[in-house]
Specification:
The complex is a heterodimer.
Chain A (H helix, E strand, L loop, with lengths): L2 H10 L5 E8 L2 E8 L5 H11 L9 H5 L4 E3 L2 H10 L2 E4 L7 E4 L30 H11 L5 E8 L5 E8 L5 H13 L8 H7 L12 E3 L2 H9 L3 E5 L5 E4 L17 H31 L6 H10 L7 H21 L5 H18 L5 H14 L5 H21 L1 H17 L1 E2 L2 E2 L3 H6 L5
Antiparallel strand pairs in A: 1-2, 2-4, 3-5, 4-5, 6-7, 7-9, 8-10, 9-10, 11-12
Chain B lengths: L3 H27 L5 H23 L6 H7 L2 H33 L6 H16 L3 H25 L23 H5 L1 H5 L19 H23 L1 H4 L5 H7 L12 H30 L5 H18 L3 H37 L1
Helix pairs in contact in B: 1-6, 1-9, 1-12, 2-9, 2-14, 3-4, 4-5, 4-12, 4-13, 4-14, 5-12, 5-13, 6-12, 9-11, 12-13
The chains are: A alpha+beta, B mainly alpha.
Chain lengths: 443, 355
């Protein structure tokens, strides 16, 4: 056996899906090399037969076949092409070169589907999927402009991952683009599996409570960010766009809001801001008003709260922590569980925890209401990442307020503001007021 | 990038935080009638010195006062920056100590003083280590969240006002100028504006826009004194340690669920004070960083915070706080007078040299 074919065999190893099939292409005998998990051989051969010449002469075989694709001689390059799903045609098992052709692939990607995690009311329903090339296509369909630039990178040692970068020439912030490209090129050896790897590669700390990279699965959102001078990245295998940089107002402002009239848009956005504040403050407010500063409340209200807590055997802070932890567990469980068991959790959570815990006087009535309000309000925030960071941040306010009462709430909110103000990624501060100015109103 | 909005906001917030707690009782104590005279004197002094300071700073575009003084030699550094630094340290100590005392008196009867002081120092410390831009961004965010409260409460605070208490309007007695309580009132007047000279070149702003901030600060000076005066009358208001707080406590709003809605207002002022403390901590840290460039700013802020916390713990009672106010007034007036004037004259000097 010739060294080239042997080298290919050696580098891919003993994979049972690697095939070396001798075949008669019209009247020419060739060897097909490929991975049958990626290449649909039968239809591919039919396609090649259609494309190829009617009659092959036995002389200059290689030259004739090379019309179908490109001639490759480097074994490692051939290996990576094979892994990408290309089909190689060799004249014989002894030839020192092969021709790489595009075969009919095995269908491994799902079709462009509906949005699953970020529902919008009025807006396009198309969503990104796992294939980055498809995603770029979807983006091009959104923005028909010759100013859109796409750059491909391959990173990683153990496995080569395709990373694509899209920006809008002329609008993109040059510094940002330069830094991002420099970081990607400088760290081209890092293996990318997850969002954390991408942020690490870009030199952004992964130890951050708020998301440093905005993710969206809505193409129109990604397209609008391009128009605002941001950069969109696609990592092959992740079904969403990574938008750089992520800023504070992304938590509240959705591009598809603009499909509503202006006053409606403003009120929806204000609602989200109010929801975030409620989610942050309410648990803390409950503890502060029940345990530390009851005098702030009107007397009748203070009495009725005290009445509802009658018989609850532990301090308000412990009470709310217990219920919050259970609530977080329900949320996490309902994500994790198969859809067929999901309703059970809802029932157990809703009826048993809500009703029974109150009746057994383990928690107060009011607390259940507070928790419900918190959870509902929390969900008004845009984006899964933001949702989780707000879920986490409310504990800061809660802890502060259990010690310092109403002061603690404001101190906690101030602390969160201070934290957000200190965050910046790739030179762009998280609280970037410049962009928000363009948005007109902050709600 | 022009950040005038952030600077103006910061100016307003820190002054609001400084004005509403101690300033009213200082003024009310200082004279028997015609309180507008000491107030307007203070305001005029404040405005004049801020304008002189800004004029002086405009001779040195994109430079902070540390750079300015050091370009004129070591003598200026010691003569001006050392007192400024000492003033900052003492101001933070007094502010933290006084405000934690206020908080324990008004809201947190059961929380130990050291815990409140730790809170009032920890959060500003956390903000100060993130740098000046973070402080100013926080200012904007905080103003969005808390300023609406403040405006609302200031409007309802007129509920129990009796306009006849405004008389007599005139007072021939100008002895208030030498009274300690009036001198103490300059804590609010001279405390907040020095930052304007520190933030260049990180944060650039248009000097003229600061004038907008006067429009918010001047009414605050007046309202903080006149609301308690017109609610209780001079004789009663004089007996309170925090007349403005008590005046707000008299407000009853039947249509909201809180009995003491004013608590939220007062506590949002506390967040402004935290902003003020973090700004002063940052200013003190860059002064040290200038003289000892090898130490990382983070370590400087940590050690400053630690020293101030120990100092706060060592102050046993309110009398001592009053005493510190008295001692601090020397530094306060030195800084109020010399810094704006020296910057102004150095500016003129350097301008002559150029031409």
């Amino acid at each position: 056996m010739n060294s080239l074919i042997k080298e290919i065999k050696d580098s891919i190893g003993d994979n049972d899906d690697l095939f070396f099939t001798e075949h008669q292409l019209t009247d020419l005998s060739v060897v097909f090399i490929g991975l049958n998990s990626l290449v649909d051989l039968g239809p591919s051969i039919k396609q090649l037969e259609k494309m190829g010449q009617k009659n092959y002469s036995s002389k200059e075989k290689l030259k004739q076949i090379s019309q179908l694709g490109e001639i490759k001689r480097n074994a490692s390059e051939i290996t990576s092409l094979l892994l990408e799903g290309k089909l190689m045609i060799a004249i014989s098992l002894n030839s020192d070169s092969v021709v790489s052709v595009d075969p009919v692939p095995v269908k491994l990607n799902r079709a462009i589907d509906q949005i699953t995690n970020e529902n919008t009311m009025l807006g396009p329903l198309v969503s990104f999927n796992e294939d980055s090339l498809t995603n770029i296509g979807v983006m091009r369909k959104q923005l028909l402009s010759e100013k859109i630039r796409v750059k491909h990178f391959r990173t990683g040692i153990h496995h080569k991952k395709a990373l694509s970068l899209i920006y809008y020439e002329g609008i993109v912030e040059e510094n940002l683009l330069e830094t991002v490209v420099k970081e990607i090129k400088g760290n081209s050896k890092s293996d990318l599996y997850s969002l954390q790897d991408v942020t690490k590669m870009l030199g952004i700390t992964p130890y951050s409570i708020v998301p440093r990279v905005k993710t969206t699965e809505i193409p129109s959102e990604a397209a609008q960010s391009l128009l605002k001078g941001k950069i969109v990245l696609f990592l092959d295998g992740l079904p969403f766009a990574l938008i750089l940089p992520s800023v504070f107002i992304d938590m509240f402002f959705l591009e598809s809001d603009k499909n509503l009239t202006f006053p409606l848009m403003i009120s929806l956005r204000s609602l989200r801001i109010a929801g975030t504040l409620i989610a942050l403050i309410f648990p803390g407010l409950y503890v502060a008003l029940v345990a530390v500063n009851p005098e702030v409340l009107r007397l009748e209200l203070a009495l009725s709260i005290a009445q509802s807590r009658e018989g609850v055997p532990y301090p308000a802070f412990i009470e709310i922590i217990i219920m919050l932890v259970v609530l977080e567990l329900i949320m996490e469980a309902s994500v994790r569980l198969p859809k067929s068991i999901g309703p059970t959790i809802t029932m157990v959570g809703g009826i048993i925890l809500g009703q029974a815990a109150v009746e057994a006087q383990l928690v107060s009535n009011l607390l259940v209401i507070v928790l419900a309000a918190t959870t509902i309000a929390n969900s008004t925030v845009i984006g899964v990442q933001n949702l989780i960071s707000i879920r986490l941040l409310k504990y800061i306010v809660l802890i502060f307020s259990s010690v310092f009462g109403v002061l603690g709430i404001l101190a906690g909110v101030f602390f969160i503001c201070a934290y957000l103000a200190g965050v910046s990624s790739i030179g762009v501060p998280y609280l970037n007021f410049k962009h928000s100015k363009g948005e007109g109103n902050n709600g | 990038m022009d950040r005038s909005v952030q600077v103006v906001m910061m100016y307003i917030l820190t002054h609001l935080g400084l004005i509403f707690f101690l300033y009213p009782s200082n003024i009310i104590e200082s004279t028997d009638q015609g309180h507008w005279i000491p107030i307007s004197l203070g305001i005029v002094i404040h405005i004049i010195f801020v304008l002189v300071y800004l004029k002086g700073l405009s001779f040195f575009p994109r430079r902070n006062i540390i750079m300015i003084y050091s370009s004129f030699g070591k003598v200026y550094l010691i003569l001006f920056l050392l007192p400024i630094f000492l003033y900052f340290i003492s101001a933070v100590t007094i502010t933290v100590r006084a405000y934690s005392e206020i908080l324990t008196i008004i809201f947190l009867a059961n929380t130990p003083l050291w815990a409140v002081m730790a809170l009032l120092l920890f959060i500003p410390f956390f903000l100060a280590i993130q740098g000046v831009q973070a402080i100013f961004r926080t200012g904007i965010l905080v103003s969005f969240l808390f300023l609406p409260f403040l405006v609302f409460i200031l409007i309802v605070s007129f509920q129990n006002v009796d306009a006849s208490y405004i008389y007599p309007l005139w007072n021939n007695d100008f002895s208030f100028m030498t009274k300690q309580s009036y001198i103490n009132s300059f804590f609010a007047i001279s405390g907040g504006f020095l930052f304007l000279g520190f933030i260049q070149p990180e944060i650039s702003y248009k000097h003229k826009k600061i004038v907008i901030a006067f429009a918010a600060v001047v009414p605050a000076f007046i309202l903080s004194v006149y609301i308690p005066l017109l609610t209780f009358g001079k004789a009663t208001a004089e007996t309170f340690l925090f007349p403005f707080v008590l005046a707000l406590d008299t407000i009853t709003l039947s249509w909201i669920m809180f009995d003491r809605a004013t608590v939220f207002f007062l506590l949002s002022l506390i967040t402004f004070i935290m902003l003020f403390i973090s700004l002063v901590l940052w200013k003190a840290s860059i002064i040290i960083h200038h003289s000892l460039p090898s130490i990382k700013p983070v370590y400087i802020v940590v050690s400053l915070t630690f020293v101030i916390y120990i100092a706060c713990l060592l102050i046993p009672n309110w009398q001592q706080v009053q005493m510190l106010f008295k001692w601090n007034s020397v530094l306060r007036f030195y800084v109020l007078l010399t810094v704006p004037l020296s910057i102004y004259f150095l500016g003129h000097l350097s301008k002559k040299k150029v031409y």
